[in-house]
Design brief:
globular, TIM Barrel, alpha/beta, 25% strand, 8 helices, 226 residues, eight-stranded parallel barrel
C-alpha cells in the first residue's frame, strides 16, 4: 500500500479540506504542521515519513479563480526526486499546450472535463470526482472507460476531512468491474484500519491528509503497510 499525502492550495496557502465545501477551506494549522506554507507542509510530511509521491490540488485553478502554477513549479524544482500528482483543472483539450518536468504527473479531474474523445496519456491519472454520490463532470466519461489511463482516482469529495470513512462500496465496485485499472482511494480515510480494509479490496494506493495532520496515521502504521 502506497500512501500519498494531499496538499490543497488556495489563495497561496495550504488549506484544510472538509466535505468539498471549498469556499470554507481555511489555511492549515494542525498538530503536524502549524504553518500553511507549502514548503513547510512538505517538510513536516517528510519528517514524518519519506514519502515518494504527493498529490497537489490547485483549487483556485480548478475553480477558475486564479492559479498556483508558479508556486507548483517552484515546488517541483525544489524536490526533483519526488513525484507530484497535480490537478490544476486542466482540460484534456489543452493538455498538449504545456511542457512538464519529469517529476510532474497530470491529474485530469472529471469535474473539469466536458468530454474525453481520445486515450489520455499513459502516465496521467483520471480522477473520477463525486459529490454526495453525484458524478461531477460529463456522465459519458464515467460510462465509457475506453479512454481512461491505467490509474483512476476515486475522489469522494463529501467525505474529505469528515472522519467518516472512505466509500468502500464505490471502491469495491470499481475494483470489481475495472480489474485492469489501478484504483486509488481518496476521501474519508481515518487511519490504519481503513487502509487495511482497502488493501483487502485490492486498493494499493490511497490519498490521505487529515489522518496524517491529526496523528491518526503514524509512521509505524505506514511502515506496516509497505
Amino acid at each position: 500500500m502506497h500512501i500519498i499525502p494531499v496538499i490543497d492550495l488556495k489563495n497561496q496557502h495550504v488549506v484544510l479540506a472538509q466535505a468539498g465545501k471549498r469556499s470554507n477551506y481555511q489555511p492549515l494549522n494542525t498538530p503536524l504542521c502549524p504553518s500553511a506554507d507549502v514548503f513547510e507542509v512538505i517538510q513536516h510530511f517528510l519528517a514524518l515519513y519519506p514519502f515518494k509521491q504527493f498529490y497537489i490540488a490547485d483549487l483556485d485553478a480548478i475553480l477558475n479563480q486564479g492559479s498556483h502554477a508558479e508556486l507548483i513549479q517552484n515546488v517541483l524544482r525544489h524536490y526533483p526526486d519526488i513525484i507530484f500528482w497535480v490537478d490544476n483543472g486542466l482540460n484534456v483539450v489543452d493538455m498538449n499546450k504545456y511542457s512538464y518536468p519529469p517529476n510532474y504527473r497530470i491529474v485530469f479531474g472529471t469535474e473539469s472535463q466536458t468530454q474525453i474523445k481520445a486515450p489520455l496519456p499513459a502516465n496521467s491519472l483520471l480522477s473520477l470526482d463525486f459529490q454526495d454520490e453525484k458524478p461531477l463532470g460529463a456522465q459519458t466519461i464515467f460510462d465509457d472507460s475506453r479512454f481512461w489511463p491505467d490509474s483512476i482516482i476515486l475522489m469522494t469529495l463529501n467525505k474529505v476531512g469528515m472522519n467518516s470513512g472512505p466509500d468502500f462500496k464505490k471502491l469495491a465496485y470499481y475494483r470489481q468491474y475495472y480489474p485492469d485499472k489501478n484504483v486509488i482511494a481518496a476521501g474519508g480515510i481515518r487511519g490504519l484500519a481503513d487502509l487495511q480494509e482497502l488493501f483487502h479490496l485490492g486498493i494499493k494506493n490511497a490519498l490521505v491528509s487529515s489522518c496524517l495532520h491529526f496523528g491518526k496515521l503514524t509512521a509505524a502504521d505506514i511502515q506496516s503497510l509497505s
